[in-house]
Design brief:
Two copies of one chain form a homodimer.
Chain A: E1 2-4, H1 7-19, E2 24-29, H2 35-47, E3 50-55, H3 75-84, E4 89-91, H4 95-98, E5 105-109, H5 116-120, H6 124-139, E6 143-147, H7 151-163, E7 169-173, H8 193-198, H9 201-214, H10 220-232, E8 237-246, E9 259-268, E10 271-280
Parallel strand pairs in A: 1-4, 2-3, 2-6, 3-4, 6-7
Antiparallel strand pairs in A: 8-9, 9-10
Chain lengths: 281, 281
């Protein structure tokens, strides 16, 4: 496994891999790897000849007052974990390598980025789509792997790949969860023991929503109320949003219909967690 | 030479070419080919194993009230001309193929797009950078060729290629001119015989500007006045802008210094023509 920090060396290495006709599976990450990342990486390894990840905490996708500086970083630990999955290459550039002085090109997906996390984190998805375009151009993957946990991100990036005719296969894998159902996230590390325990209400509320839908409930307001009530059992939870949207366009629904995304963002203290499920009714 | 209209077939063809290890030279055009295009194509043919062009009048780069509908089109003629240069592939998609219903992803270069043509054609460069990104992703060229005539376009696209880490060589070739110096352009076809004759003042004024600079003149206002006076000799000319900018950032200069771009846009009736020269002082 090679760890590469500069673009010139990365290009060289990727050219060698391409010349051999090897397929490349790529998992972009912000590091501080957890089981969710590792499951993406293992699948990428299995489905491709060469498996690469990036570790880059991308300042462009963090807003003012967000946790860019505090975002957990531990490259030595990530390196060890990556090795265990058979990772062939870690690309871990500096901010300056990715955004040199005078940087000025941005990739934007409209509409899909307006609601949900896009509404509370203006500019966030512009940062995501821009850095992912750069990483795709650098790594030139045949297949890329993202987690369902960041559902809106997956929809937005899939739209970008299609709209811009990027020649790669976009794969979304299920959310990896702790035993109590909490979605794995590098940000879980911020939680106090009490908050961590309470955070299980998120998935609990989503499971209850699914149960109601299966039993025939179609009224979105009713389902949102049930979710909200369950989350409110946790004393530290502050709900940012609970939304039920059509997966085609991420627009709010009044009644469940077709493929629906139930997504939520909830703060525990300063820590913002997201989770979601997809239902077909 | 194959003419391809749909993306699925194009992908197939490009994969075959790549599999053989052939290098691809690509010239994006809006068709109605002239000697300027042909010179780009001939160079692309010489420098690569496989030469492709696109012919696509891109609605996204035309503003309201601009000449999208009237832009000259003649695919049969273009086909014949392309064949004469040894072109291997013409990609000539429909608007619907490039921008299906619900299309929503855009690539934007900031700052460099604010002045010159960007100021008088808001949204123009957003359309150019978006379509060119799509075409690069579809054709996967090793080398791409643009004309110096569209100077700002070349600077903007070069910036995009660098910023987004697109893995290709960006080549700009000199402006091709008629015998009287008029820069070749598909839009020259719109000119009445009288306007066509007058339009030679554009290059005449730029040559005079170069002469002054060589003789030691450094004051931008003085040079712009001389250009303006020469262009005003043409009765039908309406000056849109005459600008002298630093090629590093396309910002206006007060005094000539370093590498300078002298660029102008002038209307003859409804026909808007552009031209430019680059000076090193």
């Amino acid at each position: 496994m090679e760890i590469i920090k500069d673009i010139a060396r990365l290009r060289e290495r990727i050219r060698e891999v391409k010349k051999k006709g090897l397929s490349i599976g790529f998992v972009p990450t912000m590091g501080y790897l957890h089981e969710g990342h590792l499951s993406l990486m293992k699948t990428a390894k299995k489905e491709n000849d060469f498996m690469a990840i990036s570790i880059f905490v991308n300042p462009l996708q963090f807003g003012a007052g967000e946790d860019f500086e505090e975002y957990p970083r531990d490259l030595a630990r990530d390196e060890m974990l990556a090795r265990s999955t058979g990772c062939d290459l870690i690309f871990s550039p500096s901010v300056k390598e990715m955004y040199p002085t005078g940087y000025g090109t941005f990739v934007e997906v409209k509409k899909l980025t307006e609601g949900l996390c896009g509404a509370s984190r203006p500019g966030h998805f512009l940062g995501v789509t821009t850095v992912v375009t750069k990483l795709f151009n650098l790594l030139r993957p045949d297949r890329v792997y993202f987690g369902q946990k960041d559902a809106q991100q997956a929809f937005v990036l899939k739209k970008m790949v299609n709209d811009l005719n990027m020649d790669l296969e976009f794969i979304v894998l299920p959310t990896f969860r702790e035993d109590d159902g909490l979605a794995m996230s590098s940000r879980n590390k911020y939680l106090t023991p009490e908050q961590r325990k309470e955070a299980a209400v998120l998935y609990k509320s989503l499971k209850q929503a699914r149960k109601l839908a299966v039993e025939g409930e179609r009224n979105v307001e009713v389902i949102k109320k049930v979710i909200s009530d369950i989350i409110s059992e946790a004393g530290h939870a502050q709900i940012e949003y609970i939304e039920i949207v059509d997966t085609q366009n991420l627009r709010s629904l009044h009644m469940l219909k077709g493929e629906c995304l139930i997504a939520l963002a909830v703060k525990f203290g300063q820590t913002r967690l997201i989770d979601n499920i997809i239902l077909e009714v």
